Amino acid sequence: MDICVGDLLVMKKKHPCGENKMLVLRSGMDFKLRCQGCGREFMIPRSKAEKNIKNVIRENTEEQ
Predict the structure, then answer these.
(1) 21-45 pLDDT tens trace
(2) The model's pTM
(3) Domain ranges, residue 34
(4) Could you say which of 34, 41, 42, 47 is the most buried, measured as most Cβ atoms within 10 Å of its Cβ?
(5) Domain count across the chain
(6) Can you spell out the DSSP letters for 21-59?
């Protein structure tokens, strides 16, 4: 799965604050995500995150 920094992930499960949209701050073997509801940042293993992604919203869809 091709996830880049700046992508907005819509997750299957909600964060404890009730929001299911997460911003990708770092990608690699694990992701650093920021909850769009409460602003909390957390790390999650790539394998666990990829199973939990419902949709990917890309901000920069411009092609050059």
Answers:
(1) 999 999 999 999 999 999 999 999 9
(2) 0.86
(3) 8-57
(4) 34
(5) 1
(6) EEEEEE-SSEEEEEETTT--EEEEEHHHHHHHEEEEE-S
